[in-house]
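User: I'm new to structure prediction. If I give you an amino acid sequence, what do you actually give back? Let's try with this one:
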Amino acid sequence: MLIVLTGIDGSGKSTAAHALASDARAEGKNVLLLNNHAGRRSMSVLGERLGIRWPHRLSDAVETTLRVANVLASHCRASRFDGLVVMDRHLYCQLALRTAKGLPRGRALPWLLSRLPAPDAVVHLDVEPALAHQRIMARGTDTETLADLVALRDAYRSLPEYQFFLKLDADCPPEVMVDSLKRMVHAETAVAA
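Assistant: Good question. You get back a string of structure tokens that encode the predicted 3D arrangement of the chain. For your 193 residues, that looks like this:
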């Protein structure tokens, strides 16, 4: 079973992915946790240190290249794995980032998405941008503006794929959100069986 987690920065994707994988392992299940990062945090930190804001097309080119490479590698690993596969981020995230930056979807990412194995569920962690911003500032490893988080939230909601996502309220404390995610995945597993 393949579960993909999406959401704006600060929604708790990585926390939820690790907790879901740990819980499944504790139940004796085979679990593969895969991260499909695009280097945004590293670019954000570097840009802040240099005092620059990367041009949208340059940051998109770097992020898209890294994300596609990671997603393809993840799908290769997943194809050889028997058990629960949890992907933290996917090409949906890159499509949302492009939209948030005012860039077109293009043809390559949607085409590639249509050729990859479809996830059994895409769970979107829905969080208010102001709360996500607080979380990002509290962790202190990167920065995002509130305006960018709002734009990214709106971009996710505008994706044609969004209507098929399972929405999970991520405004609650992380442990409550993780419990809700576990119940959601257990329900999806039962339906798939």
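You can read the tokens as a compact description of the fold. Here is one thing that stands out. The longest strand covers residues 121-126.
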